[in-house]
Amino acid sequence: MFGAMDRQSALRAVGFMLVWTAVGLALAFTLVWLFPGLGVEAPPPAVPQVNAPITPGPASYHDAVAAVGPAVVNVYAIRVHQPAAHPLFQDPLFKRFFGEPPAQGSVDRVFGSGVILDATGLVVTNLHLIRNAQEIRVTLSDGRQIGAAVIGVDPETELALLQLGETQNLPAAPIGDSGRMLVGDVVLAIGNPYDFGQTVTQGIVSATGRTSLGITAFEDFIQTDADINPGNSGGALINARGELVGINTANYSETGSGGSQGIGFAIPINLTMAIVRELLEHGVVERGWLGIEAQALPPGAVETSGLTQGGVLVAWVLRDGPAEAAGLQPGDILTQVNGQDVNGPRHAIHLIAGVRPGTEISLRIVRGWEEKTVRATVGKRPRPSGG
Hints:
alpha+beta; Pdz3 Domain; six-stranded antiparallel β-barrel; six-stranded antiparallel beta barrel; 20 strands
């Protein structure tokens, strides 16, 4: 009896649930039909997240070129070579019978580039363009041709400073900071390659502080793969912001015949402006000098001398020179100049050359196993021939 009642109760409960389930579904469909906004929309398909792209460089470097281009000029120099006349030609009897000897000689016309630094007409260029020139003319981007005179030259960096004969409405290049240049920075070379007229090439900084190239005595070049062809010498190397950061000077060529190899060298503008200031103030660049020959340390010298750092070997001392007066001797190892470690012969020359002549400096040396400091008064570095 109880089993039959339990089954009846269960059947009534199931029926009750089915009836109310049907009622609920009917009500839900009715509400969705009357009020579509109550429906729940399916979420949009997931979109893969992409990292934000690196901000690209400018699509055009026109503004940078426009800022400096007008200040980049074509430099033309004329050299007249007169051969040595034979003494017979000057003999009065010879002239009586044969007349004046024919004028013989050759004329070289050299072209290159330069950069106007300020509105007063100062132009910096490379020395090899204007060396021994009888006449120098500069062509501006607006077509004007202006004569130029030499203010001063520095053979040891291959720089020359010119003064234009006309200063009306002259453009000037914005000066940048070459000390901030980094490998990979975009640079543009502006100049007069092959005398085609102003041309722009683009590349990156391949290296900074290049030395030991044999181009100049004092080297601290910016290396770039921007094409630097014959005629670009003396022109501008600029950054992407339109600032002058270097003076194009040379390119690399295995044959020595010129032409771009994708390896060009520019003098940093910071060094250039230091030379310009010296030339304006003194007419020449005065560098310090001790009268020694510095050589790289031979193998094992550090260990045998008990050195804790590097240095250079003093291989030769000029008699009656500043170094001899200070007590330096051949065989000494020079480790510091004014407290700054010396890391090679060229570095030692740069440290000493950077001191104004007449200044007293301290030199840290090792002689045998003894390390001591001596004082020396820097002399004036002799000017090289051909300057």
